[in-house]
Specification:
The structure holds 2 protein chains of 2 kinds. By secondary structure, chain A is mainly α. Chain A contains 9 helices and no strands. Chain A has one domain (about 35-255). Chain A has helices at about 1-30, 35-50, 50-75, 85-120, 125-130, 135-175, 180-190, 190-215, 225-255. In chain A, α4 (about 85-120) packs antiparallel against α6 and α4 (about 85-120) packs parallel to α8 (about 190-215). Chain A is elongated, with a radius of gyration of 21 Å. By secondary structure, chain B is an alpha/beta fold. Helix content of chain B is about 45%, strand content about 25%. The chains are: A mainly alpha, B alpha/beta. The interface between A and B is medium-sized, with 16 and 24 residues.
């Protein structure tokens, strides 16, 4: 029993180290990469433009629900005028970065893990290496660098749409004066909140995209399956672990920044 | 085997590789002269693809040495390895084409990522490579929209666009019918002469290999049990070579024996 626990703990430490080396090598590869700008633009399109509809839809519904729930709770204390404060701080500090990251994991992260897994299976990654092309520089680095820009942008969009959703719920449906709502938003949000939001978005982007890339890139090392099943298993693991790490990192960052 | 080492572009000595308890290469040695087409024959699972992947650095050998153009390719010598990769191309059994890139983008990829050539020149050289293998009309198609033979040619175009000195072919005719097998071997021989590269092909197609190759080697149980010209292969008395060479006759003898057995059974009944 003890031996099994020890072996499992060692395997986790080994994988964490391997993941750290993988991420480090991906950043290091940026130094010698050719035509990196184009690859970043393409990765930005994949992560940004393709994920835009889901970000806008989920952001809008999150704002609508927050506005609705917030209004009824605040109404009990006669504080409906603070609806803007509640919606804006909830979105900017917590829900915006976390939910946007989860949506990006579901859409861009899973696609990345599956794509890399298939490329590994069909020897496309090995082909790059035989051509003298760094597979990290060509496949991983552009995605990681794009994520550092795309995640904060998508989070900002999510928050903006969510604020409008809150306004729709509070003002249009429940009769709160729009000026009161937006004024409380303006008074509530401080530079520190925006900074916290951006730090979280960048961290989530770095962690989730590198984790999804790591699992897809190493799909051939999957011990429980081979071939298409290995791609499926590594994609599932990438999405599950990325989702957990977003929430865990959210807690850690919040406890340091608050 | 005793060829002058200066005339060899590639010299492999005592290459060994094992996966767990399974010994795949057990001291394999091979010489590949400049400008020649050398074929390594062997049964399925003999270690032919592993040999090529050790050369291409996809798999790291456990022991042995590889000399390219007289210089050793030492593990950890990044400069020598980079030079080797620049001068060598690998054509995978599965073609390993990028399915999200068009034919032209596939061919342009190694130039874009390993050279500082301007975009215009990369495009011209890629189109030229496509033209030479008669695929220019299909430049905007994706690999999945091309036939198996076209994909093989596209993979070859990608392999030769960097003007390599050595091209490694991993089972280029695997899974093809006899007519296509002939066509692929003819294509390799034609372009090998046209572009002047040295070709190392691994296959188990004996007839085509003997016709198209300058030299032939036979890999068995991880070792080269024969190395020489096709004429020497045809005359060899090495047991494994005879088995390989006479496999069709052996099949005929087995079938004849089976038929005789059936005849005896019908007489008994």
């Amino acid at each position: 029993m003890l031996r099994a626990i020890g072996r499992y703990s060692l395997s986790i430490v080994h994988e964490l180290g391997d993941f750290a080396l993988f991420t480090g090598q991906s950043f290091r590869s940026a130094l010698g990469a050719r035509r990196l700008g184009r690859r970043i633009a393409r990765a930005g399109f994949e992560q940004g433009v393709r994920c835009l509809p889901v970000i806008l839809i989920v952001g809008m519904f999150t704002g609508l629900v927050l506005g609705l729930q917030g209004y009824y709770v605040l109404n009990r204390f006669g504080s409906e005028s603070l609806l803007g404060t509640l919606v804006s701080l909830s979105l900017i500090r917590e829900l915006g970065p976390a939910l946007a990251a989860l949506m990006l994991v579901g859409q861009a992260g899973s696609a990345l893990a599956a794509e890399l897994g298939i490329q590994r299976n069909t020897e496309q990654i090995a082909a790059l290496e035989t051509m003298g092309v760094s597979s990290h520089a060509y496949l991983i680095t552009p995605r990681l660098l794009a994520a550092l820009v795309v995640y904060p942008m998508q989070t900002a969009l999510f928050v903006t749409v969510g604020l409008w959703g809150g306004s729709l719920s509070g003002s249009l449906l429940l009769g709160l004066e729009p000026g009161v709502y937006w004024s409380s938003v303006e008074h509530a949000v401080k530079a520190q909140d925006v900074r916290e939001c951006i730090i979280k978005a960048v961290t989530f982007g770095l962690l989730t995209i590198s984790l999804c890339a790591y699992h897809g890139f190493n799909a051939h090392r999957c011990s429980s399956a081979t071939g298409a099943r290995a791609v499926s298993a590594s994609t599932t693991r990438a999405v599950v672990q990325s989702s957990i790490i977003v929430l865990a990192a959210d807690y850690i960052i919040t406890s340091f920044l608050v | 085997m005793g060829a002058d080492s200066n005339s060899q572009l590639l010299r492999i000595e005592g290459l060994s590789k094992r996966f767990g308890q399974n010994i795949v290469l057990d001291g394999a040695s091979l010489n590949v002269p400049h400008g020649s087409l050398v074929t390594v024959l062997g049964r399925s699972g003999a270690g032919k693809s592993v040999l090529l992947k050790c050369l291409a650095d996809v798999i790291r050998p456990d022991a042995g040495s590889i000399h390219f153009d007289g210089k050793p390719l030492t593990i950890g010598d990044a400069l020598a390895r980079a030079d080797f990769r620049r001068r060598c191309s690998f054509l995978f059994q599965s073609n390993a084409l990028f399915d999200s890139l068009t034919a032209l983008e596939n061919v342009a990829l190694p130039l874009e990522q390993t050279t500082d050539l301007p975009d215009k020149e990369i495009r011209e050289r890629s189109l030229e490579a496509l033209r030479q293998i008669e695929l220019e009309a299909h430049q905007d198609r994706y690999p999945s929209q091309l036939s198996g033979g076209m994909q093989k040619r596209l993979a070859l175009a990608r392999a030769i666009v960097t003007r390599p000195e050595l091209v490694l072919f991993d089972e280029p005719t695997a899974g093809l019918d006899p007519l296509r097998r002939n066509a692929v071997f003819a294509m390799i021989a034609k372009y090998q002469r046209q572009f002047g590269f040295t070709a190392l092909v691994v296959t188990h197609d004996l007839t085509e290999a003997l016709i198209a190759s300058d030299r032939v080697a036979l890999l068995d149980k991880g070792r080269m049990c024969f190395e020489g010209t096709p004429a020497e292969f045809s005359a060899s008395t090495v047991a494994m070579v005879e088995d390989f060479r006479d496999s069709a006759e052996a099949l005929g003898r087995t079938l004849a024996a089976i038929r005789r057995g059936e005849a005896l059974q019908s007489e008994d009944s």
